[in-house]
Structure formats: structure tokens, C-alpha cells
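Let us practice reading a record.
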Amino acid sequence: MKKNIITIAGDLASGKSTVIDLLKDELNYEVYRNGSYFRKLAVDMGMSVTEFNEYVGSHPEIDNQIEESAREYAKDHDNLIVDARLGWYVVPDSFKIYLTVDIDIAANRAFNDPNRKESESFDTVEEQKADLQKRFQLENDRYFEIYGIHKDDMSNYDFVLDTSNLSPEEVKGKILEAYKEWQSK
């Protein structure tokens, strides 16, 4: 029998956190967030998220610890949403979602998000865009080096959605429709 676990990964600033909050309320699921833990570690070490990404590249034990925590948590839980870049990899029996977004839209979203200011601080949208691109590449390279996988290989996912021109409510609706279909298989 399938467990009711959704893993959500995606491009930076694709709306993952927003839609996860909507899904949590709609489904009455618990949420496990790797990204919050990662950001907290960065702030605790006095680093931006990009600097911490670079640091973790030479300290794979940190990455393994973060990903393993999601795997272990999912083993004993049901009715769960896992917010993790590699959630699909560490919880392979989940409904695996990847959200994409146009890089210019992502940069604007990130630049104007007050919740990011503690770990990301830029003077222009262009600087934010360059940082998003750098972080994406750092993560992809690191995941390939440590795990031999590419998070941007869309064949890893059950459902891929471009959020560029959709409202959070529209994204939630499309995910719920696909999730119900997946559950019925």
C-alpha cells in the first residue's frame, strides 16, 4: 500500500514553500523542511546560503546528514510533505514533484522576498539572478559528486510543473489533481 507522502523539489524561487503551505492546509499533512534546516545552518555559521553551498561541497557529511534526516523521518510518518531538493531520491516511494520557473521571474521573486534577506542580500535583481544560477550549479554539481544524480533530470519525477505564470492556488490545484491520479494507480 502506498504511503501518503509528497516530495517537492524545484528550481530556486519556484514557489515551493508557498505551495507546500497551501497543500499542508488542504490535505492536513505534516511538513518536513530540509531547506529551513540548511538556511539555519548557513546563518548559524555566519554564511550566505551560497557560501554555505560552497562550504558543504567540501564537507559532504553535512549534505548526507541533511538528506538522511528526511529519509529517516519519512520512514515513520504518513500524510507528509517533504520539502527537500533530494526528497525524491531519499523517499523514492513518494509522489515526486518538481517545480520549474523562468530564471528572470525567479530572480524577481527572490529579490522581493523579505524572508530571504537574512541569508541572501543583494542590491539588484541581476545580482540575485546570478546568485540563483550559481547556487543551482553548485547544488547540481554537489549532488552528482556525492550521489551520482542530477536533480534537474525530469525523469526522476512523477509530476513537473512550470509555475512561472501560475498563481499559488493554480499550482496547488494542478498538484492535487495529479496527486489524486497517482494515488489511484
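A brief commentary: The longest strand covers residues 5-10.
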